[in-house]
Amino acid sequence: MAKEPVTEEASAIVRMARMLWADKFALCAAIFLVVVIILAIVGPTLLNELATKQNLRGRNLAPFDFSREWFMWLGADALGRPLWPRIIAATQNTILVAAGAVFISAVVGTLLGLIAGFSSQRTSQIIMRLADVIMSFPSLLVAVIVLYILGSSILNLMLVLSITRIPVYLRTTRAEVMEIRSRMFVQAARVMGASSKRILFRHILPVVLPTLTTLATLDFAYVMLAESALSFLGIGIQPPEITWGLMISQGRQYLTNAWWLSFWPGLAIILTTLSLNLLSNWLRIALDPVQRWRLEMKGPKHG
């Protein structure tokens, strides 16, 4: 009997893998994101010395000079630092800020949304008014003001971006809970004497989770772009720390004669954002029992 849950979990993983294989664009996106995550974990440890090594003789070195060392193939910045190792080293901070902001906003927004959707009308209105207050201010403007007052750091940037994204998860979760709470299985759990806490986290949350997973994947791309915008404006991560947005900001004054300084980190942002959008679209279909057949029909069994 103990092996049945393991077998069911393994079959679910195999089914998801087959559906991912059926969507080649999502498969390429997933592979690219796995590579990005690996680079974010091991990149700074392996390439931090190369990323910070200055060589004033190689200032604004053009890319594609394959007669030089491999780490100079994408060119060098205004201080002669190779761009390839710097882009890899910057991956960690970029992904860390985006992942941390999405995690915090998703957890807080989901909890508040569960409470707002399942509690009394008064409690729900108080929580929703709080969300309206947050949404009434432009997110980038709030980030600019707070970071100017508190100072730029990875933690402050993460917290500011997470606060501005909480209403997104709150409103989505509340809408889902208000629709699900009237279903028969919730009524049956209530009749059986289940507590509100058990109904929320054991019966309702698993139904809402696929929608929130898809939303978080899309939101990850949005937060990463917001972090890049703040770094481009000069109020995000500050040197000696480095992100893709900061690299674009540092290269904007050389756009006319050294376009590669901003192009390569910008390309990294574009590819990561595109991959997240493709994977989000796949997740939306794969986690929906009504639409899942579209991917299952493309699988190996059906040619």
Keywords summarizing the entry:
single chain, about 300 residues, mainly alpha, 11 helices, about 0% strand
Description:
The structure is a single chain. The chain has about 300 residues and is mainly alpha-helical. Helix content is about 75%, strand content about 0%. It has helices at about 5-20, 25-50, 85-120, 120-135, 140-150, 155-180, 185-190, 195-235, 245-250, 260-285, 295. The longest helix is centred in the C-terminal third of the chain and has 38 residues, at about 195-235. The two termini are about 35 Å apart. About 35% of the residues are buried. The model has no long low-confidence stretch (mean pLDDT about 85).
